[in-house]
Structure formats: structure tokens, C-alpha cells
Amino acid sequence: MSYESNPILDKLPKHLKQFIKPQNYEEYTAIDQAVWRYVMRKNVDYLSKVAHKSYVDGLKKTGISIDHIPNMYGMNRILKEIGWAAVAVDGFIPPSAFMEFQAYNVLVIASDIRQLENIEYTPAPDIIHEGAGHAPIIANPEYAEYLRRFGEIGCKAISSAKDYELYNAVRHLSIIKEANGTPQSEIDEAEKYIEHLQENMGEPSEMALIRNLHWWTVEYGLIGTVDNPKIYGAGLLSSIGESTWCMTDKVKKIPYSIEAAHTEFDITKPQPQLFVTPDFAFLSQVLEDFANTMAVRTGGLSGIKKLIGSKALGTIELSTGLQISGEFSNVLENDGKPIYIQTTGGTALAYREKELVGHSIAHHADGFGSPIGKLKGINIAIEDMGPRDLKAYKIYEGEQIAMEFEGGVKVEGTIITGTRNLMGKIILITFEDCTVTHNDKVLFQPEWGLYHMAVGQNIVSAYNGPADLNSFDLITHQITESTIKSKKDEKRLELERFYEQIRHYREGKNTTVSRNKVFQALKKDHPKDWLLPIELYELAKQDNNLEFQQEILDHLEHIKRDNPKVGHLIDDGLQLVDTALVS
């Protein structure tokens, strides 16, 4: 096992465990640790004024340190006190898997950390975003329940085939943007491709809509009033650039509502508007309103059509409770209602999320088809017939029968048995020598074997994934592209060593390091690096070494002149040092 488990992680199904990877804590360099420390110091200083009070409280409760990148094992020991856990993954994982982890009270944490060059913002998920953004706020019980419930509903959302294409494109962009030395032309091309995909998505799928809700709440949400909002979204909590930008009048503040589901976002740019929820409980209210529009609750013809469009494994549930899981390929309709459904390839039948004995994908390897609805000219539906009714209508063992359904589907054959649910309703009828037709089209013929007819007058639910997780082999995830670990040259390795020496000095592990020598080597060989000089300035300030302080400040001024883009980062870093030492 590549990770240390605990009672919460033990409950994860196998198909989610395939995404978990070891954190490899020893791979974080001293530069990575300095990036974490800078962002966290800046965040805590600034966010204590503008974030929801749960954030600062949550940092303490979840044991997230300002000075050290969190170790997943340590986090889990503390998270379990609030009923959660965390796992490391490699960058973006498919949205339905991400949400399903949430349904099990598990935070998915991309264990990589952004490069120093992307210290303010990265489109790639990283440990700053997940660990410092998501983890603290789940210490709030109302918000934690919203996150869990969101996962539970979100993983049932039906995707379109284009959603997966977009997911792969976004994952690719996030990887190359964080990889050292990627040519700008390659990044531009990847961004252009995402733009093209977004403009040609067609009717948004349920997954696309619920992903919008996730973005405008969990990632980029504000809470309070439009005039006086506080930050709770992890994307804002972890971005030292956007957390400041979002509080200005340049970002429009809109009261949160279900309309957010229809508001697109662009992962590559700062957001032009944000939604403000009055409180965390209101988030759950909007989520339930949205869930009421989803096929998991509405079923019907539109639900089955969404599943066909997804070209992926999905489930329909009939009014008897019978669940059919497979890849849906066709539906016949009449008067706006489904009258016959068809799957292709391995299909499993279940009741209450438990596979029916004798109805696995091995038994239905070539697909499954069944009429839906009521029999023509009979008021009572088959599922509502008691034993005497069934006998009267010759729906009985050994009877040769011809059934015609409303909509014109005909089933002719000899009944050999029926399967009932716990409430005594018949949910499946098995025939031999059976022919199924619709008008002149043959849907099933006797030489194909036994015919199992599902019983149900309505499709009450349609959703992504199987009813019984054990019915299918779901350990099929292939990561098309892994995060790129740049090969380091000697110069980079030297810079990492300098950072490590200063880190060890500050933490008292090696106080014999000559900070002046390190500074002189930095000026000569790494003149663009600005973060380590700030750390050296902090130590000089602590020692009250005025001459050394001034020398570092002069050097930082040179860097600002040569690279104005980092000017505000340097100023903020110096201000943090000055403020911390005064307080």
C-alpha cells in the first residue's frame, strides 16, 4: 500500500483507491518549503482580516503549520477528529471521482507544490490550494456537511462525452504550465484548445452545471453580504493574488443562487465576478434545488437520453426499485415517454444497490433490453398486481403469453419465473422461447436464450456510475499524462542547497552557516532570486544587524528594477518581516 490508511480511508471503494499516490514528503525541496512559508505567512496575515472566521480557527484545528508543508499522515491524525481524511493524488483527477471522494469525507490533495515563479496563482491543483485552502474550512461542521453532500450528489451527475475531453485538456494545461521550461507557444496552444472546446460544448451536461456550482462556492465562494463579504472558497484562500483582487470593486459581487450553475468560468484568468452566500446553510439549500433538476431525481425520457449521450457507464432505476447498470445505447419513445430501453455490452441488474443473483455482467454480457410502462388496455400496472391479479392476467409460471405494452412493444413467450422485491412487488419476469417486437422491428428472438423482462412503469432515476460498485471492474483509470518533474541542473541544485542552509540556520539545526557568504554567492550566481534574500533579511533583522539589512534591501531594489513583476511580492515579504518582528 502506497499510503497509511485509517478507518475513514478503509471505507473507500477500490476504484477510488486507484487514484491515491504516496506523498513522497522527502521530495519537497527547501525552495518548496520557502514557497509554502511565504504564501502561508502572507495568507494568515491578510486572510485573518478578510476570510470567514472558520478559516483561521480551522488552521489551528487541522494542524496546518505556517512553516512546514503539511505531511498527509500528520494531517490525517488531526482530520479524523472532525470525521475527515486526506489523500495525495497526481494533479487533476476525473470530476466524478473527485466528488465521490468528498462523499466519503475524504479531501483529495494534489501533493505537488507550485513553482516559485507561480507563487501567486497556478491553474494546477497543488498542496497550497488543497491543504491551505480546502482543509481549514472543513473544520466548520455546516460547511463540511455541504462538501460531503455535494460529493454525494455530484458523483451521480451525468457527463457528456465532451466533458472528458475538456478534463484531459485542462489537466494537460495545468501540467505544462507548472513544468519548468515549457515554451510559451505550447502553453498558448493548450489555452487556445481549451477555449475552442469550451465554445463548442453544446448543451451543458449535469456534470458541467454542477461543476460550475462547485467552482463558485467551494473554490471561489464569498460569504456574508454583497457589501461586506468574507472569503471561504479554497481557490481564493490559496491565491495571494486573487484573495486581494477579489476584495476590490473591480470584481462584481452577486448574491448566490442556482443561476451560478449557468455561469461559466475560465480557469486561466482571475474571475470577473463572484457569488456571495448569506451563510453556509444556504449553500445546501441551493444544492438541493439543483439536485431536483438532475436525472437522479427526475428520471424519465430525458434521464435516459442523458445517459445515452454520456457514452459511459450509468444506471436507471425503475418504479419497482429494479436498477439496470450499463452503457445505454438506445431508447424507443412514445408520447414523450420511454417505452423500450437498450444497453450495449456488459450489464448488471440490482435492487437497492445490491446485484441480483444471476444477473451480473457475465449473464448479460451482450447488453440488455426491456419494455417500460403499462400493458395496453389494462389499468393496473404489472408492479401493482397482487398474486391473484397476476394469475387472472396469465402472468404466471408455465403460461404462454402475448403482452402488448402502451406504445406498441410486444413480448411473446412462455413465463418460467418471476423475481420479487422485498415489498413483494414483481420486478423481473423471465421467459423462454421469447420474441420481442416493436412495429416491424425485432428486438429479441428465441435463439438468443432466456429473456429477462424488467418490470416498471416509469424510470424514476438515472445517474452516472453503477448501482452496485462490485458489479463492474472499475479499476481502469489510465493517467494519460503525469505531472512533469523537471531535471535540475547544477545551478538549481546549488540554489536549493543555499535555501536549505538558511532554513537549517533559522530552525537552529546548523547555526555555523555564514549567512553573508550565502548572500554574496546569491548576488553573484543567482541574482534574480528574491525569496531567499527576504529570509536572510528576516534573520538580519532578528539579530539587529543594520548593515547587513541595508545591503540586502539594496540588492532587492536592484531585483525590483530588473523585474518589476515581483516588486509587490518583495514589498509584501519585507512588510511581513517588519510586522512580525514589531508584534
Fill in the keyword field for this structure.
single chain, 583 residues, alpha+beta, six-stranded antiparallel beta sheet, five-stranded antiparallel beta sheet, 22 helices
Write the topology of this structure.
Elements: H1 7-10, H2 14-17, H3 30-50, H4 53-61, H5 72-79, E1 85-89, H6 95-103, E2 106-110, H7 127-137, H8 141-154, H9 161-178, H10 184-199, H11 206-219, E3 222-224, E4 229-231, H12 234-237, H13 242-245, E5 252-255, E6 273-277, H14 280-291, H15 295-298, H16 300-310, E7 314-318, E8 322-334, E9 337-351, E10 354-355, E11 369-371, H17 387-392, E12 400-404, E13 409-420, E14 426-438, E15 441-444, E16 451-454, E17 459-464, H18 490-506, H19 515-525, H20 531-542, H21 546-562, H22 567-582
Parallel strand pairs: 1-2, 3-6, 5-6
Antiparallel strand pairs: 3-4, 7-8, 7-17, 8-9, 9-10, 9-11, 12-13, 13-14, 14-15, 14-16
Pfam families: Biopterin_H
Keywords: Iron, Metal-binding, Monooxygenase, Oxidoreductase
Organism: Flagellimonas profundi
Explained architecture:
- The protein is of the alpha+beta class and 583 residues long.
- Helices cover 42% and strands 18% of the residues.
- It has 22 helices and 17 strands.
- The chain has helices at 7-10, 14-17, 30-50, 53-61, 72-79, 95-103, 127-137, 141-154, 161-178, 184-199, 206-219, 234-237, 242-245, 280-291, 295-298, 300-310, 387-392, 490-506, 515-525, 531-542, 546-562, 567-582; strands spanning 85-89, 106-110, 222-224, 229-231, 252-255, 273-277, 314-318, 322-334, 337-351, 354-355, 369-371, 400-404, 409-420, 426-438, 441-444, 451-454, 459-464.
- Helix 8 packs parallel to helix 14 (280-291).
- Keywords: Iron, Metal-binding, Monooxygenase, Oxidoreductase.
- Belongs to the biopterin-dependent aromatic amino acid hydroxylase family.
